[in-house]
Design brief:
The protein contains 18 helices and 14 strands. By secondary structure, the chain is an alpha/beta fold.
């Protein structure tokens, strides 16, 4: 069989395409936001909360441990940005189907601070009662007071990072407090208060044996969660793991064969569970519990992103707000404008590629809307990519749909990058760079680096 053949498995795929550039043309932004959206007005909202109670070793997101005074000041600035964004005719014309509070750790904020943000959200964007509103956090911080405030303001889905139940790995390698017993108590609280919640897990961690990973997956499947996300370890610059693996040589380089073996072991367990609904390359849900935020972003809808370091997609341009929390607050307070840090007006070709790059997070990509949106056939625009990936055994065409093969499931993120049309250096969390030679993997020369910055994730 001919076609493309990938050499190294990319651990995660792009969440923003095309990447914002290094400049901002405010005239372009203002002119595009001054008129309503066209007939394609579906949208999601992302709010970035850049605070954590502790810094986990693997995390490359835009975050910091901070004071209550800084948190309160940030909440005020974020509410001000919400007010500013809501004034534009373009944003006013959007139909918001999903909202996501991410970070960082959103429930590192107090109940009162979370309530103020959500109140501003409802006041200015008026999400419908059917809108999916998700709040991320750690299970320890979903206190009675926070839960009551979240539910009172329409939060109907939560997501918590577990990573592993193994107490020793959590303490020694992830810089996380609490072990299995405490985590299970926290999960029970989520189960008793929310009918829909996600848990995150990571495989290929240091000292994570096959038995530990098997137990993690078993516990996840029987936890009562309605949605699971399984990630491989991703080595990112500017993280504790970067220092552990690269600078200090504390751990051996990740083994790609082992990563794939652990992935396949998890798939065997999932296949015998109610989570057979693997609707995206890393997400599993009970029937009817797919994450609407994930699905809507995969459909290339608009993303109104708010907060320091947030990345959005509006009116045909991708954008990033300033990463620095201090600069973000200063700018909003002093200028009363949105602190854009970078933007890129997507070309017609990039908008079509975005449909593929974002859409192929789903394992079943509907191609029919492509022609309605762009006036061209997906098969004509991407004939070479489809041929190469089909001949390589990664994708199959089923009428107006693209589907991953079993082989394609393993290499799904490489498939997505292939549609970007050029070599890319981000691993999926917008502009975060992994530490392999190509910037997308960690399996080449582990000491070779590329520049990167702190980021947020659009999930």
């Amino acid at each position: 069989m001919s076609g493309i053949s990938f050499k190294h498995r990319e651990p995660i795929g792009s969440s923003t395409f095309p990447m914002p550039g290094d400049a901002v043309d405010l005239q372009v932004i203002e002119s595009r936001l001054a008129r309503p959206a066209d007939r394609f007005n579906g949208a999601t909202i992302y709010l970035h909360i850049p605070f954590c109670d502790q810094i986990c070793s693997f995390c490359g997101f835009n975050k910091a441990v901070s004071t209550e005074a800084t948190k309160d000041r940030y909440v005020n600035a974020l509410i001000r940005e919400i007010t500013l964004q809501a004034q534009s005719p373009y944003v006013q014309s959007l139909s918001f189907g999903a909202v996501y509070l991410g970070g960082g750790t959103p429930n590192a904020l107090s109940a009162e601070q979370l309530g103020r943000i959500l109140e501003a959200l409802h006041t200015h964007f008026r999400p419908a009662g059917s809108t999916e509103i998700t709040c991320e956090g750690i299970v320890q911080n979903f206190t009675r007071e926070r839960i009551d405030v979240l539910k009172a303001h329409g939060v109907n889905r939560v997501s918590a990072g577990i990573q592993t139940f193994d107490r020793e790995i959590r303490a020694a390698h992830l810089h996380m407090r609490d072990g299995r017993e405490e985590l299970l108590e926290g999960i029970a609280k989520l189960r008793n208060n929310f009918s829909n919640f996600n848990l995150d897990f990571i495989y290929n961690l240091p000292n994570q044996t096959d038995a530990i990973w098997e137990d993690d997956v078993h516990m996840a499947l029987t936890s009562g969660a309605t949605h699971l996300t399984l990630y491989p370890l991703v080595l990112l610059e500017n993280t504790i793991f970067y220092a552990d693996y690269v600078k200090n040589g504390k751990y051996a380089s990740p083994e790609e064969d082992r990563e794939i073996a652990m992935y396949r072991a998890a798939m065997r367990q999932v296949a015998d569970s109610p989570f057979r609904n693997r609707y995206s390359v890393r997400d599993f849900a009970l029937p009817g519990r797919d994450c609407r935020y994930i699905r809507m972003n995969a459909e290339s809808n608009h993303i109104l992103a708010l907060g320091a370091g947030a990345h959005g997609y509006l009116a045909g341009f991708t954008y990033r707000t300033t990463r620095s929390t201090q600069h973000y607050m200063n700018h909003v307070e002093q200028h009363g404008t949105i602190p854009f840090d970078a933007m890129r007006l997507a070309t017609a070709d990039e908008q079509m590629r975005r449909y593929a790059v974002m859409g192929l997070r789903m394992r079943d990509l509907d191609l029919a809307p492509f022609e309605e949106r762009f006036g061209r056939s997906f098969f004509d625009v991407f004939a070479r990519e489809i041929e190469d990936l089909s001949e390589g055994g990664y994708l199959v065409v089923n009428g107006d749909r693209l589907n991953f093969t079993e082989k394609g499931d393993v290499w799904a993120n490489n498939v997505r990058t292939f549609f970007e049309g050029k070599a890319a250096t981000n691993v999926g969390y917008t502009d975060t760079v992994s530490i392999g030679q190509d910037g997308k993997t960690h399996y080449s020369t582990i000491s070779r680096l590329k520049a990167s910055g702190d980021v947020e994730a659009n999930v």
